[in-house]
Amino acid sequence: MTSMERESSRDRLEREAFISLFVAGRQFDEQIEQVCRAEGISHPQYTVLWVLCLADAPEGLPMGALADGLLTRSADATRLVDRLLVAGHVSREPSPEDRRVVLVSPTDQGRRLFDRLTAEIKALHRRQWGALVNDELRDLIHLVNKARFVGPPGDPPTGPAPPRSTGSSTRDR
Which long-range contacts (CB under 8 A, 24 or more apart) does 68-74 make? Predict the structure, then answer.
């Protein structure tokens, strides 16, 4: 009897779910990376612009808050900002209130780039998720988050799963 013959149906389903999510995630990430690369930046750099352009911070975001918004190490955020700075997409200035704090802001050029990329990425998402209706997307989000918030056996969950969102008709897109 081989190890595959001894595999339970639950084990097989869990493995298939993992592989499906892993492959889909890599495929979707690669598609976004291609859109970003066509504009001369990386997906993580776009994410920096996303946080900066959507923040309600006319004076700029402190580097620490930017790193927190990216859920990354400060060194990674600094490296990403350095590349965007060289390309003219962001500015970096000391805070007038506390010179130890560095504020990062998108430039007009960076905002235009963000707007272009966001329109392209939204169109990509419409293609990626076009076969699913809104209720199916909500279910998918709920199920992935439910699985994501459960840690290894014996570990407490990393946080409560987000509440199930409600919405309009099953046929909405």
Answer: 70/44, 72/44
What is the pTM for the complete model shown?
0.77
- The whole-angstrom separation of Cα 128 and Cα 114 is 20
Residue 45: CB atoms within 10 A of its CB come to 23
For 103, phi then psi, to 5°, come to -100, 135
What is the CATH T-level fold of the domain 13-131, as seen in this structure? Answer: Arc Repressor Mutant, subunit A (1.10.10)
Contact 52, 104 (CB under 8 A): yes
Q: Match 């840690």 to its residue by tokens.
A: 151
Rounded Cα distance, 72 and 119, in Å: 25
How do strand 102-106 and strand 90-94 relate by DSSP bridges?
Answer: antiparallel
C-alpha distances in Å from residue 87, one per residue of 44, 60, 122: 15, 18, 24
The token pair that represents 63 in the structure block: 């580097």
> CATH 1.10.10.10 residue ranges in the chain?
13-131
Q: Tens of pLDDT along 62-113?
A: 998 888 877 767 678 899 999 999 999 999 999 998 988 999 999 999 999 9
Residue 5 has, within 13 A of its CA and on its CB side, a CA count of 2
Tokens read off for 159: 């946080």
